[in-house]
Amino acid sequence: MRISQDEIRLGILNVKDRVDNPTAGLIQQIAEFGKEKFEIIVIEGILGSHIYKEMFISLYETFQGEVHTYYYDISFEETLTRHNQRDLSKVFGAERMKSWWLEKDMLGFPNETIFTAKQTQDDVVEMIIKDINLT
User: Fold this and answer.
1) How many domains does the chain have?
2) For residue 134, is pLDDT > 80?
3) Which InterPro entries does the record associate with it (predicted)?
């Protein structure tokens, strides 16, 4: 089961990504719903800890630590280079992305994997699949 922060926040709730918006609560409810119905639940998005950390702490407890978190620790310049290879680069550019940028915004959970610019997309996918298969 994939839970997309953008789908929830923009597509369903149509709210700004600010503290106290209802997105975290709905993501948590959907993940809890999926717990008994799906073997794997992926929550994906740009999930700033100032908004979503409490949700992740609660889900970590709900899932009894059977959680893997992943963080891309790459420079803004590298992020922009990668963004410019996507169709969304026509929708928003560097200035807007810079306003969202959160440096070193890791959760610090056990099993948190930090990806750097050295890992290719294939490396990242392979590491995640390995983690899933070990769980």
Assistant:
1) 2
2) no
3) P-loop_NTPase (IPR027417)
